[in-house]
Amino acid sequence: MITIIRPLFIILIAALLHGGKAQAQNRDLKAAPPGASTVQIEKLSQSYATRHLLQLAGGAIDFTAIAENYVFTESEGGPRAEIASVTFTKDNADPAIRPVAFIMNGGPGASSAYLNLLAIGPWRTPLDGSRYSTSLSTLQQNPESWLDFTDLVFIDPPGTGYSRVTGGERMRQYFRSVDGDIDALADFIRRWLRDRNRQRSPIYFVGASYGGFRGPLLARKLQLDTLKYFAGLILVSPALDFDLLPFGRVIYPPWVSASILPSLAAIWAERNSSLTPELLQDAEAYASGEYISDLLRGVEDTQAIERIAQRIEKLTGIQPSLTRISKGRVDVQGFVRDLERKPAPNLGSYNVYEAKGTIAYSEDHDLEYVTRILSGEMNGYFMNMLKFRTSEQYKVIDYELTRTWRWNNGRYGVEALSTLQQAMSADRSMRVLIAHGASDLTTPYYATKVLSSQLDVGQPRRLDFKLYGGNHMFYTREGSRKAFRDDAKAFFEHEQAAQSPSHQ
To answer: CA 299, 445, 215, 74 torsion: positive or negative?
Structure first.
């Protein structure tokens, strides 16, 4: 059974070979420069450093892990928020040329645990058939970690992880908004760079789902406020325009159905072991050609709807009678319900709602199952691996935060594509890598592909699009995770070979 990740709740390893003594630090920090923000970071309330060794295919890496949380105050000194993060830095590297990537998931309301322990960090928690308990730690070293080519900073926005709002209801509403969220994250990045004397380091952003939405906004915010530029953005299953997402609508505009169709075709073909690049090309060509042309004829054109019904059945297995009822528009929920009634022997079944002691394995995991696994890992991960001490419970995802998020002018009309265009125009050296899963129904890949093709980037290869097997969290598949790492490594190495002085 293919399980859809809960809409918009997205976002976003054996034991260490040797550890060191954790060192707690409490020290005052300087205020942010005038004009940068009215927010100040008064001090580090906690900072714990440990030393480790990571064994990768290319050799062993000595690295330092720092788990900490910054205390944010307002200009008059009142409490505001605490933002927790985990930093992994390669030992004995030259900070002037060593890249650093700031990494976060989405939601909004999701912590960085997903990308940290499932894809990029030095440890990974496996998601396989041997995992019968969500409370048993199975962390192991991550052979696909990015630590050999960049330092890593995993950020948990306020309300996620150990990060929290401390300034009352006014501050809580501020941080639960598009603008307040970006202001706080930009303040954190500026302070992190200043505190570690890493202003000359090439900096990157990696964000998944709503984290991908944050990327362009953060890039433009840093450009305007402090003339600081990202060398590159990696947007993972990003939500760049919420008007193209298939949720909360009674009637889909034709372009929304067209953007979903290739993902439905990918799922159907994979269930039947027939997924090929050529099939996806065919689905994309139909979606952007005859399909949308017939949809634009309207719901009263029965001949157009009949053409659609026959072609949709071949691509997705959806019965023509259902397509006629929906007047040619694809019904995602109906498609998934139909899949549940049709067993696919080449794919595992998966149902997190069954009260059973074992869970059948599927490469595309349900968000709730993955969240339960990570929730069982994160407190022990911070306490045992990173020696971080707190009485708080790590919050992998906060659904209440997601429900109460303030979308400025409402969820529809919210988009980051125009800001991405502005950021890339302001810095002609910045490059972008977009990574998607072919069977993603939360942020369908073809919507992003069509949107990104509208950007005028001026140079070839400044914006690259990569497609992998899997859904919204495609990196839970081993093959996709390995391919994603290889593409990210090539992306970083290209940047280092052609680094612009504007990034120094």
So the answer is: positive
